[in-house]
Automatic annotation (TrEMBL):
This is Aldehyde dehydrogenase (NAD+). Belongs to the aldehyde dehydrogenase family. The active site is at E256. SUPFAM superfamilies: ALDH-like. InterPro entries: Ald_DH/histidinol_DH, Ald_DH_C, Ald_DH_CS_CYS, Ald_DH_CS_GLU, Ald_DH_N, Aldehyde_DH_dom, Aldehyde_DH_Superfamily. Residues 21-485 form the Aldehyde dehydrogenase domain. Keywords: Oxidoreductase. It holds the Pfam family Aldedh. GO terms for molecular function: oxidoreductase activity, acting on the aldehyde or oxo group of donors, NAD or NADP as acceptor. It comes from the Bacteria.
Amino acid sequence: MTATVDDGAGVQLKNLVDGRWQDGRGEEFTSTNPSRPDSVVGAGALAGQAEVDEAVAAAARALPGWARTPHHERAAVLVRAAAAVEQSAEAWGYELAAEEGKTRAEGVGEVLRAAQILRYCAGEADREAGEMYSSPRRGERVLVTRRPLGVVGVITPFNFPIAIPAWKIAPALSHGNTVVWKPASLVPLLAMRLAQALQEAGLPPGVLNLLAGDGATGSRLVDHPGISGITFTGSTGVGRAIAASCAARGVPVQAEMGGKNPAVVLADADLGLAVEQVLLGAFRSTGQKCTATSRLIVEDGIAGEFLAEFARRTQSLVVGDAVDPATQMGPLVSASARATVHQGIEDAVGQGATPLAGASPYPGGDLAAGYFVPPTVLELPSTDLAVWREELFGPVVGVVRARDAQEAFALANDGEYGLSAAVFTNDLGRALESVVELDVGILHVNSETAGADPHVPFGGAKGSGYGPKEQGRASREFFTHTTTVYLRGGRPA
Ligand SMILES: NC(=O)C1=CN([C@@H]2O[C@H](COP(=O)(O)OP(=O)(O)OC[C@H]3O[C@@H](n4cnc5c(N)ncnc54)[C@H](OP(=O)(O)O)[C@@H]3O)[C@@H](O)[C@H]2O)C=CC1
Ligand SMILES: O=C(O)CCC(=O)C(=O)O
């Protein structure tokens, strides 16, 4: 009988190296269910240095053949994988909710999003593949062609266990690279599911290698001399360390990192819409999105009315087991995440923040046993507090009031991050002003701070991003490099 995430022992985790599924040879580890921490979701063993060496060697061997495979044949593999992922959406969405803690509906939605990304990237085969320029010399044309980067190391975070890997691995493969992937150790099962789908769709051995591992495994991958580039998403501290290490060796790096994303609600906004969207931005995925709303700036004139309704709706969110269809917000991913978020709330309250919703830890029962934190809204006495400046990565929103739009935009820009922002206004002039004023990678006007389509660039400004952007056509800037060809043939005309 096939093991399931609910049968106690967990699903057996394997690594994929050179087309073979094998047990890890390092320390044993498990992933557990954050709603019910005693329940094991996946069980296996970490990959060590030897497996990193084997995976990189396999990816290097597979590279010339895969790079020369016609783009349309590479795309066909992604299309087949997309169909398999889509077919498994219900089952894997359930597993995702059990392993990571976002709600089941969000889990299913994320799996479907991965399928959509695989299809978008397959479409790259039909898009223009280079450029041609005229030449100042007779009998010559200048072509700009694209080549794969090579063997790419992919390091992914826990919070989007299948969508983020899909939007790194699919363009890597589509552009002819081979991959060694180290997913977050908290969510190895969903990583295995995606790798299975791609492998069974017909990838040749060694084109995609999966290593379950921890930070040390990631570090070995980053430092491996056989790696041609690293694409990373995760915390700013780890991302900067990886970028420094890659820079020292001249290896290209793409790092998408933390966020402290503001929602600005101006006095002329549709307040019902704004409440709804800020709730989604702040509390979906339990606030564990790099694009989550964690700062709220409300214009004075409507602050009282808006905050009363926002607090009321926050308090009425149904918090519970992530796989229960009635749940609107699940747990945080781990005990240490819960401890960090509770500490952040306690520190803020100690420094004068006023709780408008949530804040106190659950006193007992299932919510105290799981890694649950109540959705929390804190009105802040100043913007000096850490809860305003540092990423907490949980369901916590700090609120300040602004005199006018100008002050609101200045407050939104005040900070080291620049991933996403939302502005709520019915005034087109104000909306356009926000486009000019706000220094962010993603700006939503009248929608929540989170959310990203696969066909447009994704990534942050300031401390949130380093290197070329992800997704859409932007992704080829990282996954390929150009060769400029001065092409003369025959006799000059
Ligand atoms: N800007 C963006 O697009 C996004 C940013 N994020 C950010 O990610 C963070 C949350 O994800 P989280 O998984 O906790 O992030 P981490 O930075 O802790 O981990 C990300 C990945 O890096 C690995 N890792 C840890 N240490 C090292 C190291 N020294 N060398 C190489 N790899 C290492 C982790 O392994 P292990 O899990 O085993 O520790 C994991 O696979 C938040 O800061 C969030 O804002 C998340 C999603 C999108
Ligand atoms: O906003 C989204 O939907 C995805 C963003 C993301 O990668 C994240 O929040 O971790």
